[in-house]
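Summary for the steering committee. The consortium agreed at its last meeting that each partner would contribute one worked example illustrating the joint modelling workflow. Our contribution is presented below. We chose a case with several input lines so that the handling of multiple components could be demonstrated. No manual editing was applied between input and output; the record is shown as generated.
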Amino acid sequence: NAGVTQTPKFRILKIGQSMTLQCAQDMNHNYMYWYRQDPGMGLKLIYYSVGAGITDKGEVPNGYNVSRSTTEDFPLRLELAAPSQTSVYFCASSYSGAAFSSYNSPLHFGNGTRLTVT
Amino acid sequence: TQLLEQSPQFLSIQEGENLTVYCNSSSVFSSLQWYRQEPGEGPVLLVTVVTGGEVKKLKRLTFQFGDARKDSSLHITAAQPGDTGLYLCAGAVNNAGNMLTFGGGTRLMVKP
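What follows is the complete predicted structure of the assembly.
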């Protein structure tokens, strides 16, 4: 199994450009998440989805949009890139939500997309 | 400010030494997970603790969940260079739905 696959691995954007970070999972997980990781700040939740057609904001959603048209895919869209969005972005999936039966529901992460906005 | 505070932020030790990493909060968590992350990769789950006072062992790693479920510790015995990485704790709060909150991480380097 491939697990969680993120593309691209690296990207440099100019201020004001837009792009979509792709995320796909082949584990038939209902829950998917987007996190950003800044140096020394751990992981911050941007958006998450509990199933196809359903998305919810996390801690830091401003400047981002998501969609979940299929169980497998959860793309993250940046419409007007800003330097503050320079970060490493991680997509993750889980069988069930974080607050429920966590023994059987760890997060499976992709290998990240390193984004630089200049 | 972060909901979960990890300490120390950085730790550099010699192979064979013991160490403890702490994860503290003022919030009560329904469960707490520890992840390890290597450069260029996503975090990988090490353990989940659910019950207050719970202790779990994973080879040379011992994880403890505080009695009040507000804090946790990770103790590594006889550290090896292969233990080098970023250790992250993450907690689930009962009334926060499906959000898992991460601490800032402890970056560990074990020198041979």
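The radius of gyration of chain B is 13 Å. Chain B is about 0% helix and 55% strand.
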